[in-house]
Structure formats: C-alpha cells, structure tokens
C-alpha cells in the first residue's frame, strides 16, 4: 500500500487510541504516521469493497475475505485453477458467489498487490515455509500398492 503521492492531513485522536496506534506501529516496525496511513487506507478499502477485511499473517498484512481464513490472493489462486469460473470456486468453497465476486473485484482494483502475493506464493518452497511456520509438516502420499509390487518384482 505504497502511494506515489501523499497528502499531509492532521488529526486528533483520543489519548488511548494514540497509545494503541503507537503499539501497533512498534509491533510492525512502522512509524506512527505509516501505521495511521495504512489503517486509513484499509478502512477506505473496507468501505469500498464488500466482504474485505485485513489481517496480519506470517507473510505480512493481507486483504482477506470476511468470515473466512482466506486471503484474496488465495481465492484468486482458486479462480486460476478453475479457469476463472466463479460459480465453481463458490461451490468449492461453499460460499455465495457474491463473496467470490468480491475477491475478484478487489483483485482487479489492486492487481499489482495480488499478483505480487501470487508470485511470492509460487516462489515459496517447503523449506521457506517451514522457517515461517516451524510446525509445518510435509505430507507425501504413499505409492500405490501396484507400483510397489512392480518395483519389488523388478529388483
């Protein structure tokens, strides 16, 4: 959410809100000004796009679909795998199609943000994921019995 041009706007916050803003900024390594600008931008996006929310994740702050654990980019990954068929993605997720459309609308408006997240996902291998999520386990499907018998017979 980096803006090429910016405008300085002064505002007053209740003292407790200012403390909370500073704590959030410190937690993320942002300045208070950056934190307030991000929160305003996120609030504007929430107001402009149905079903959109923002959450912290191991990959940073992301646009997500309300009432779910999915980031918008993850819904778009499903859209790609279903050839752009919103109805099929909605059935897969057991969501109303309007929620999928909301993700598509957001992704179209913030294409660079979503493409960057998709590219980052594509570039992440399991060892990188494990550094971010130490509890992650890699699952491998067992070889079918037919293949094991054929391999044993070939020895």
Known CATH architecture of one domain: Orthogonal Bundle
Low-confidence stretches: none
The rounded distance between the terminal residues' Cα atoms is 58 Å
The ordered H/E elements are HHEEHHHHHH
Supply Rg. Answer: 21 Å
Percent helix: 55-70%
Q: What is the global morphology?
A: elongated
CATH class of one domain: Mainly Alpha
Q: List how many beta strands DSSP finds.
A: 2
What does this structure look like?
- Helices cover 59% and strands 8% of the residues.
- It is mainly α and 155 residues long.
- Among the domains are: 16-48; 50-123, Arc Repressor Mutant, subunit A, CATH 1.10.10.
- Strands 1-2 form a two-stranded antiparallel sheet.
- A hairpin with a 2-residue loop joins strand 1 and strand 2.
- Helix 3 (72-81) crosses helix 6 (111-123).
Notable characteristics:
155 residues, mainly alpha, Arc Repressor Mutant, subunit A, two-stranded antiparallel sheet, 2 strands, 59% helix, elongated
What is the structure about, briefly put?
The protein is mostly helical and 155 residues long. The chain has helices spanning 15-28, 32-48, 72-81, 86-93, 97-109, 111-123, 126-132, 145-154, and strands at 52-57, 60-65. Among the domains are: 16-48; 50-123, Arc Repressor Mutant, subunit A.
Layout of secondary structure:
Elements: H1 15-28, H2 32-48, E1 52-57, E2 60-65, H3 72-81, H4 86-93, H5 97-109, H6 111-123, H7 126-132, H8 145-154
Antiparallel strand pairs: 1-2
